[in-house]
Amino acid sequence: MKNVNELFKTKYPIIQGGMANIATAELASAVSNAGGLGLIGAGGYDANWVRTEIRKCQALTDKPFGVNIMLMSPHAPEIAKVVVEEGVKVVTTGAGSPGIYMESWKKAGIIVVPVVPSVALAIRMERQGADAVVAEGTESGGHIGESTTMALIPQMADALKIPVIAAGGIADKRGVLAVFALGAKGVQVGTVLLATKECPIHENYKQKVIKAKDTDTVVTGRGSGAPVRVLKNKMAVEYLSMSTQGVPLEELEKLTLGSLRRAVFDGDLDRGSFMAGQISGLVKEVKTVKEVFETMFDDVNNYKEKLEVM
Ligand code: TUI
């Protein structure tokens, strides 16, 4: 099995989450320049936006980077073509199965890494030609599945031949070591990158992550089939209470329409959707991406803290 650094030509076995509206060329190039695999998050943007960001990223880094395609987006089919045309090296996908695009991406020599929340989906992806998978635990921010990272990683590692990259709940060296002990060969991080100097989000968003405690995230949209983990605020609490009262889905959707943009661009603390993982409570200060990666991987092969197991 190829190791993750060989697969992505990176210094560290770490990839960036494809955070919609957040993962621009600016963040992706910073991650790649710091030795990880940066990703442009296509999110709900159209194919032209993605093409422009790819070109910007090519100008900002000579290191490999990729594109994350959010498959629920109506623009996904067009974006699937753009990544081929623009010579993108790696594609990760989320919120669906990339099966119909796999053949064209493989033919173009693209490394394909679906993000999946369950073993069954991961096995399907491996059969269809995926080069690796990101196993995303429910601790993650944004759109999530049910299984925890702790339960998901060893089951996925046993079921697959391709490398498993762990996501959900990882923000420091202990998280990296834990998921490697569980069988992962790499990590994907999102939340810890929100609190970086290079992350192009409103300062209120960064401060909200930094101030969060372990219990400060909630999951909205469980009834809609697309559960989303966000930091607790007025809108999230209102959503949950309306949803318990049986308010119809269309009404709930009105409340959250445009809310991620309100968080990212306006820093609207009451009515924004501040997607972030449960590990927010561990993130205490804004650092550079380089500082985050260096502390995460410093001397990781010779971890000296004594683990007094027995
Ligand atoms: O995709 C993510 N995280 C995301 S996408 C996103 S944008 C969004 N905003 C509001 C509602 C929905 C999306 C914000 N965060 N992570 C990867 C991920 N993929 N998590 C879960 C899944 C997933 C779910 C179902 C992957 C495949 C899947 O397949 C279903 C099927 O059988 O096709």
Description:
There is one protein chain. With 310 residues, the protein is α/β, with parallel strands linked by helices. It folds into 2 domains: 4-198 and 288-308, TIM Barrel (Alpha-Beta Barrel); 203-280, no CATH class. The chain is 40% helix and 15% strand. It has 14 helices and 11 strands. The protein has helices spanning 4-8, 25-33, 47-60, 76-85, 99-107, 119-127, 149-159, 173-181, 191-194, 203-211, 234-244, 249-256, 259-264, 289-297, and strands at residues 14-16, 38-41, 65-70, 90-94, 111-116, 133-136, 142-143, 164-167, 186-189, 217-220, 228-231. Strands 1-9-8-6-5-4-3-2 form an 8-stranded parallel beta sheet. The longest helix is centred in the first third of the chain and has 14 residues, at 47-60. It is globular. The mean pLDDT is 96. The protein binds ligand TUI.
In short:
The protein has helices spanning 4-8, 25-33, 47-60, 76-85, 99-107, 119-127, 149-159, 173-181, 191-194, 203-211, 234-244, 249-256, 259-264, 289-297; strands spanning 14-16, 38-41, 65-70, 90-94, 111-116, 133-136, 142-143, 164-167, 186-189, 217-220, 228-231. It has 310 residues and is an alpha/beta fold. It folds into two domains: 4-198 and 288-308, TIM Barrel, CATH 3.20.20; 203-280, no CATH class.
Q: What is the fold's blueprint, element by element?
A:
Layout: H1 4-8, E1 14-16, H2 25-33, E2 38-41, H3 47-60, E3 65-70, H4 76-85, E4 90-94, H5 99-107, E5 111-116, H6 119-127, E6 133-136, E7 142-143, H7 149-159, E8 164-167, H8 173-181, E9 186-189, H9 191-194, H10 203-211, E10 217-220, E11 228-231, H11 234-244, H12 249-256, H13 259-264, H14 289-297
Parallel strand pairs: 1-9, 2-3, 3-4, 4-5, 5-6, 6-8, 8-9
Antiparallel strand pairs: 7-11, 10-11
Helix pairs in contact: 2-3, 3-4, 11-12
Bound molecules: ligand TUI.
